[in-house]
Amino acid sequence: MANASQQIGWEFWGSELKSRREGAGLTQEELSQQLFVSRALISRFESAERQPRLDTAIQIDEILQTDGFFERLCRKLLEASPYASYFAPVAELERLATKICEFAPTVVPGLLQTAEYARSVTIAANPFASEKNVEGMVTPRLERAHILKDATKPEYWAILHENALRVPVGGPAAMARQLDHIAAMMRERKALATVIPCSAGAHANMTGTLKLMEFEDAPPTAYTETEFSGTLLDDPAVVKEAQRAYDLLRVAALSPEASLALIESAAEDFRRCASTT
User: Fold this and answer.
1) Sign of the C-alpha dihedral, residues 150, 256, 175, 136?
2) Sign, CA torsion 156/232/3/103
3) Which stretches does DSSP call E strand in 115-187?
4) In angstroms, rounded to a whole number, what is the distance separating the alpha carbons of residues 16 and 70?
5) What Cα–Cα distance (Å) separates residue 157 from each residue in 99, 179, 228, 255, 264?
6) Which of 66, 155, 207, 273 could bridge to 99 as Cys pair (CB 3.0-4.6 Å)?
7) Distance CA 228, CA 235 (A)
8) Which domains does the chain have, with CATH numbers?
């Protein structure tokens, strides 16, 4: 979630967008048509309910002839975020979502990670980072998971490939605790996780992660991520294709009961391994 100063910054960005749009004699509908987005999205930018992508800010500068104003301010606000620039808008959308559906082929999703698991993943990707920098990357990830504990928490679905359960991130004991955590979230009905077993073979999204988000009064979005970048997708046709892919993944997964049994069995395997080392 954006901190107070960042939120004030986005509110200023939005108010300036409204002021300069009106100064250019454009309605929200007219600006949205030139940006190839919905009028509702322009409204949410102006009210700071949604954060723009950097490429959108650049397009707005071109349309309104604002000499890079919106790009520069957008860059500054994104750089102040504890998240990578491509993920900052996604973290904010998670907070607003009524439903989040994720597919994780190799790594446990951030919203389900324990502190041990998050640290191990972070250090593996940043072996020379200082302890302060590691904590700076891990803490925001763990704080994101608080949305699943709030009274207004989103409905959270996760499809995990069995590969994500079998790699002993942080060592066998830490991985056992990670899987116990997922099982506890399922038993407490804070998350619904299912597993695609390795025996299922090929599946509908072999190339990376997928996150779908739904909102009470806004169109759904999709987010895909690779190791070094991510893409937030708003185009209705593309989002529909992503939803279809997720439906196919859901069909390939085990039932919630069988998935829970597999997760708990994998945790027990790691516990036995830890006890013998």
Assistant:
1) negative
2) positive
3) 155-161
4) 9
5) 8, 16, 24, 13, 18
6) 155
7) 22
8) 4-79 (1.10.260.40), 88-275 (3.30.870)
Taking the C-alpha atoms of residue 117 and residue 169, their distance in angstroms, rounded to an integer, is 6
Give pLDDT tens digits for 148-187: 987 778 999 999 999 999 999 999 999 999 999 999 999 9
Residue 221 makes CB contacts below 8 A (sequence gap 6+) with 93, 212, 213, 232, 233, 234, 239
Phi, psi of 210 (to 5 degrees): -150, 130
pLDDT in tens, 97-139: 999 999 999 999 999 999 999 999 999 999 999 999 999 999 9
Rounded Cα–Cα distance for residues 128 and 126 (Å): 6
The two three-digit tokens of residue 95, written as one number: 């907070």
Q: What pTM, to 2 d.p., does this model score?
A: 0.80
Question: How big is the CA angle at 145 (ends 142 and 148), to the nearest 5 degrees?
Answer: 160
pLDDT at 1: 45
For 175-213, b/e burial (b = at least 16 CB within 10 A) is bbbbbbbbbebbeeeebbbbbbbeeeeebbbeeebbbbb
| Helical packing angle, 54-64 and 28-35, nearest 10° | 120
The neighbouring-strand residues paired with 195 are: 160
192, β-bridge pairs = 157
Are 211 and 222 in contact, with CB atoms under 8 Å apart?
yes
Q: Is the pLDDT of residue 229 over 90?
A: no
pLDDT of amino acid 89: 85
Hunting for tokens 């009028």 — which residue is that? 39
Q: Is the dihedral of CA 147, 136, 91, 3 positive or negative?
A: positive
Q: What is the average per-residue pLDDT within 212-223?
A: 91
